[in-house]
Specification:
Blueprint lengths: L2 H12 L2 E6 L4 H6 L2 E3 L1 H10 L4 E5 L2 H10 L4 E3 L15 H10 L4 E5 L4 H5 L3 E3 L4 H6 L7 E4 L2 H11 L4 E2 L5 H4 L3 H10 L4 E4 L5 H6 L2 E2 L2 H10 L4 E5 L4 H8 L4 E4 L15 H10 L8 H16 L1
Parallel strand pairs: 1-2, 1-3, 3-4, 5-6, 5-7, 7-8, 9-10, 9-11, 11-12
Bound molecules: iron/sulfur cluster.
Length: about 300
């Protein structure tokens, strides 16, 4: 074991800390984590842990969700500047204006959002459970879906619900183009194409299966094909290689399928966060109380 990892393990034990890593994190960060998962899995781990400290190797909204779901814990975000451009595309003032324009509508909020936006929402969703969340809302009630238009469109198709969609998007998934997928299909005609719903409708239309990061991993693990084209953030390839060492995996774009914010975490920053209690997530109590509700409603489903 290298010296850095050894020091992380020592201080993790000393502080009774749990290290959670998102599947888009660098491989070495995923390997040092206690648990690796997509947003829904990380939220569940954070809510259930009895550790004193949660180190969230991911982006800010994930660390905020961990703090909201388990407020007595110290939650640390190793890379202070790791944000999510999609989450920043909508603020609470804009959401209040949308609600005023659609009186009585239910607000379904993708977890990729700020705590302030969650506080204005009725229920949260992740890409794993968004269809189920939308189906839980009475048909006669209008729905505002924020902030991801691509996921919203996918959920509308799957659930048969018409929704008002906020025009946010993930810049990383938006950069993946259908012609890139088609070119890989030509090169590898036997490959199964797996796409995340944050991809554009044009990319989703080229896919054999559209699903969350965890659903992509599950499909890869269980499907008989031996070649897969992966249309999502390339960090997921680290986990895919472990579940399917026999398979050939082709990311849609080596260069473009990278979220720069997800790659800000390093082993050094995890160690510093634990040693110096750096970048603790603090959410004012009134905001936390309102932002927690839609997350708890989601987990209760
Ligand atoms: S991959 Fe996209 S949605 Fe996820 S953190 Fe990066 S920018 Fe945000």
């Amino acid at each position: 074991m290298n010296a850095l990892i050894e020091r992380i393990c020592q201080i993790r034990e000393k502080r009774k800390a749990l290290i959670l890593a998102h599947l888009y994190q660098p491989g070495e960060v995923q390997d040092v984590a206690d648990r690796v998962g997509d947003s829904l899995e990380l939220a569940r781990y954070a809510a259930a842990t009895d550790a004193d400290v949660i180190v969230l190797a991911g982006v800010r909204f994930m660390a905020e969700s961990a703090k909201l779901l388990n407020p007595s814990k110290t939650v640390l975000l190793p890379a202070a500047g790791a944000g999510c451009p999609m989450a920043d595309m909508l603020d609470d003032t804009q959401l209040r204006e949308l609600k005023a324009a659609h009186p009585g509508a239910a607000v379904v909020c993708y977890v990729n959002s700020t705590a302030a936006v969650k506080a204005e929402s009725d229920i949260c969703c992740t890409s794993s459970n968004a269809v189920r969340v939308v189906q839980s809302i009475p048909r006669e009630r209008e729905i505002i879906f924020v902030p991801d238009r691509n996921l919203g469109e996918f959920v509308a198709e799957q659930s048969g619900r018409t929704m008002f969609l906020h025009p946010g998007y993930c810049p990383t998934h938006q950069r993946l183009l259908p012609e890139m997928v088609e070119s890989l299909r030509k090169e590898h005609p036997q490959a199964l194409v797996l796409a995340h719903p944050e991809c554009t409708a044009a990319v989703r239309a080229t896919a054999d299966l559209v699903g969350s990061t965890a659903q992509i991993i599950e499909a890869c693990r269980t499907r008989p094909e031996r070649e897969f084209v992966i249309a999502t953030e390339n960090g997921v390839l680290h986990a895919l290689k472990k579940v399917r060492p026999d398979a050939a995996l082709y990311p849609v774009s080596e260069a473009l399928g990278i979220c720069p914010n997800m790659k800000k975490t390093s082993l050094e920053l995890i160690l510093q966060a634990l040693e110096q209690n750096r970048n603790e997530i603090i959410i004012p109590e009134d905001l936390a109380r309102r932002a927690r509700l839609p997350l708890e409603r989601m987990l209760a489903l």
